[in-house]
Design goal:
The protein is of the alpha/beta class. About 40% of the residues lie in helices and about 10% in strands. It is built from 28 helices and 23 strands. Helix 8 links the parallel strand 7 (about 210-215) and strand 8 (about 250-255). Helix 1 (about 20-30) runs antiparallel to helix 2 (about 35-55), helix 18 (about 460-470) runs antiparallel to helix 19 (about 475-495) and helix 27 (about 720-730) packs across helix 28. The protein starts with about 20 loop residues before the first helix and ends with a helix. The structure holds methionine and zinc ion. Zinc ion binds next to loops. InterPro entries: Cbl-indep_Met_Synth_N, Cobalamin-indep_Met_synthase, Met_Synth_C/arc, UROD/MetE-like_sf. One of its GO terms (molecular function) is 5-methyltetrahydropteroyltriglutamate-homocysteine S-methyltransferase activity.
């Protein structure tokens, strides 16, 4: 039995934004200057106290480090940057409290661009990317962690501070602009590990018994070093940190969430740390090492936190299956702790808040609070024996059976339609034939267009909210939207764009809009999940077989088309993105669910075309995001995701031009998949990277239409004609003019009208300038 033992129930982290997004409101009020730092800190403190009390109430032991302190004002990677003192030199002139520096890094200010943000592993959460170079200063700053430890102790709770681990931290960092040629942040590992050692000593001195260090880099094949190298780095680092005697440092729980660590697990268990967590939802048990006894040997002095409760979805855990996994470990002689697969920051707070949800559906769900209770139940079973929790196991079984048999979960007609899908259904006519058939659209070289949404003004939001609450009737709302569409169409004509859009004023969100109109989805009231900083989204729940009772967008698109001679694009969100930004049923492969969504969209395209629309854009910004971290699973993913997009779009006749739009990530590494979508035109985010994507596309010999964004819509800045023309020229150097489209990076919904109109006018002039130069040449 290990000398330092974690209680048998734990979680890796808990949502920190507050049940009613209290932290968001407090932080934003501080940013506005409506409250001061002391007020913000007081609100945050109350929120933490309520969270800790709640976790104890839900069954986590108050003593022994079972409860993680996963609080963050903004982002856990940014917290690590502060704890390591790794403030980039370009922020060195900022004065004020730690919190002033912290938010300056997060959001920038008048004189500083913020740290870049990017997606955290394969989640929809964004972290602030550390900027490291040869001269980045490092020095331990444990004050925030120590303060919270003491605060919890006052409440009678022994918390476990949580840190992003050194290997993951550096592998997720980028080299700063000042870094020398060939410098890699991971080159600074030795310096950083020395600071972690100091942090650990400070935490022990402050009374921390346990610390949690997260190393999700262990499960990813998408980093700059191979997984084997990551493991070797982790071994080196934890040999060093582990060599500090416990007492001078807290006992260490090393975690590997978000994926499969089974191949590395025995080696992790052999490290001189006191506990290791494995994600047993995304990952699996190392069967061979378990059978041979090698796993038990590696874990002889180490506890294994079995991440059997899913921290990524909102479904009630199959307790019997989870318990069986944990029991196998225990029966193999391994000191087993029940845990979650990852930090619960990716799920909403509490199902009990969803009073408007159908009661039967609600009984199938588990948000963070329910998951914590499940962990506690399983842990009780582990210590007292299965019989002690048999009532809970039996109840779960009954509820899962109810879910499986409930109306709407499996609908024969939908299933037989999916079963009948053939390879043919995913193929459009040959490219050349499509090109010929689309000539009638009259699209010029370097055609100009936008990505779909126009600014969502306060007026639009107000009308939508009033309509939602029933304060204005259907007819009034419809009239409002029609007026808005007409305004946007006239504006685009005046600006001189070639292919128009209706502006998406009717959409609250590009996924939720469709979720509300499709059968098989439910929408929550308080199911907020942090997306980054103070931003949260409310993913819909895809619980049943998906079908489309009525057309979803035809009314708006056909009205827009009726107003103009120029082509108007129909606008749909693609099947992969709909799945990526929802909580999706876990009782069948994603590929099956994707086919159902794809067929619903296919019918929508049919209806759009019947109503006179000849260009349809199907957005897939999340295509890259769902790419599995595990290389072995990537091909299968790309196969079904590309297949779903093709199923959605391939019903269109050759004369219908299909567009898609990709943004938010680097698509260079999945260029074959982008090609595989077989869209006639693909718009892609590119302005900020100065057209980086053009090179892989050029090398690939991409033959269809492509619109690398020339206007960065992430800031209110108005890009000049010359600036946009220059980006068009960069693209034109690699891609023939007849393939090239000119468009912004993404939708304009977050922008204001003044800057949008000015920027789009410049965009049209830029395209014109480059066209004229080509004619003269
Ligand atoms: C995140 S991609 C957004 C695409 C959508 N059509 C829009 O313009 O807003
Ligand atoms: Zn976009």
């Amino acid at each position: 039995m290990p000398a330092h033992t974690l209680p048998t129930a734990t979680i890796l982290g808990y949502p920190r934004i507050g049940r009613r997004r209290e932290l968001k409101r407090a932080v934003e009020s501080y940013w506005r200057g409506a409250s001061d730092e002391a007020e913000l800190r007081a609100t945050a403190k109350d929120l933490r106290a309520a969270t800790l009390a709640r976790l104890v109430e839900l069954g986590l032991p108050a003593e022994g480090g079972a409860i993680p302190d996963s609080f963050s004002f903004y982002d856990q990677v940014l917290d690590a940057t502060l704890a390591l003192g790794a403030i980039p030199e370009r922020f060195a002139d900022i004065s004020g409290s730690d919190l002033v520096t912290y938010f300056a890094l997060a959001r920038g200010d008048r004189d500083h661009q913020p740290l870049e943000m990017t997606k955290w592993f394969d989640t929809n959460y964004h972290y602030s990317v550390p900027e490291i170079d040869e001269r980045t200063p490092f020095g331990a700053n444990a004050s925030a962690l120590v303060e919270r430890l003491a605060e919890a102790a006052d409440q009678g709770i022994e918390t476990r501070p949580v840190l992003v681990g050194p290997v993951t931290y550096l592998l997720l960092a980028k080299a700063s602009d000042e870094a020398g040629e060939g410098f890699r942040p991971i080159d600074r590992l030795a310096d950083v590990v020395a600071v972690y050692a100091e942090l650990l000593r400070a935490l022990a001195a402050a009374g921390a018994q346990w610390v949690q260090i997260d190393e999700p880099a262990l499960v990813s094949d998408s980093l700059s070093v191979s997984r084997e190298e990551t493991l070797a780095l982790v071994e080196r680092v934890y040999a060093e940190l582990g060599a500090i005697p416990v007492g001078e440092r807290p006992a260490i729980l090393l975690t590997a969430p978000y994926g499969d660590s089974s191949a590395a697990l025995a080696r992790l268990g052999a490290l001189p740390v006191e506990a290791v967590q494995a994600d047993l939802v995304r990952g699996s048990l190392p069967e061979d090492a378990l059978a041979s006894g090698a796993l038990a040997e590696a874990f002889a002095d180490t506890q294994l936190v079995a991440g059997v409760v899913d921290g990524r979805n909102i479904w009630r855990t199959d307790l019997r299956a989870a318990f069986a996994t944990a029991e196998r470990l225990k029966n193999a002689g391994i000191a087993t702790v029940i845990g979650t697969s990852n930090n619960l920051q990716h799920v909403p707070h509490d199902v009990a808040d969803e009073t408007k949800l159908d009661a039967r559906l609600r009984s199938w769900l588990a948000f963070a609070d329910q998951k914590v209770a499940q962990v506690a139940t399983l842990a009780r079973g582990l210590s007292e024996g299965a019989a002690a929790i048999e009532p809970e196991l039996a109840e779960t079984e009954r509820i899962l059976a109810d879910r499986a048999a409930a109306p709407g979960v499996r609908i024969d007609g939908i299933r037989s339609r999916v079963d009948a899908v053939t390879a043919e259904d995913r193929n459009r006519a040959a490219e050349g034939d499509r090109r010929d058939a689309q000539r009638g659209l009259g699209i010029p070289e370097l055609a100009t267009t936008t990505i779909g949404s126009f600014p969502q003004t306060a007026e639009i939001r107000k009308a939508r909210a009033a309509h939602g609450k029933g304060e204005i009737d259907e007819e009034t709302y419809e009239g409002f939207l029609r007026a808005e569409i007409e305004r946007v169409i006239r504006l685009q004509e005046e600006i001189g764009l070639d292919v128009l859009v209706h502006g998406e004023a009717e959409r609250n969100d590009m996924v939720q809009y469709f979720a509300e109109l499709l059968d098989g989805f439910a929408v929550t009231e308080h199911g907020w999940v942090q997306s980054y900083g103070t931003r949260a989204t409310r993913p819909s729940i895809l619980w049943g077989d998906v079908s489309r009772p009525n057309p979803m967008t035809v009314r708006w698109s056909s009205y827009a088309q009726s107003l103009t001679e120029r082509p108007v694009k129909g606008m749909l969100t693609g099947p992969v993105t709909i799945l990526a930004w929802s909580f999706v049923r876990d009782d069948q492969p994603l590929s099956d669910t994707a086919s159902q969504v794809a067929l619903a969209l296919r019918d929508e395209i049919d209806d759009l075309v019947d109503a006179g629309i000849s260009i349809v854009q199907v957005d897939e910004p999340a295509l890259r995001e769902l790419l599995p971290l595990d290389r072995d699973r990537q091909a299968a993913y790309l196969d079904w995701s590309v297949g779903a997009f093709r199923l959605a779009t391939a019903g269109a006749a050759p004369g219908v031009q299909i567009h898609t739009h990709l943004c938010y990530s680097e698509f260079g590494e999945i260029i074959d998949a982008v090609d595989g979508l077989d869209a006639d035109v693909t718009s892609i985010e590119a302005a900020r990277s100065r057209m980086d994507v053009v090179e892989p596309l050029g090398d690939h010999g991409y033959s269809r239409g492509i619109g690398p964004g020339v206007y960065d819509i992430h800031s209110p800045r108005i890009p000049s004609v010359e600036e946009q023309a220059e980006l068009i020229r960069i693209a034109a150097a690699r891609i023939p003019g007849e393939q090239l489209w000119v468009n912004p990076d993404c939708g304009l919904k977050t922008r204001g009208y003044d800057e949008t109109v000015a920027s789009l006018k410049n965009l049209v002039s830029a395209a014109q300038t480059v066209r004229e130069a080509a004619v003269r040449a």
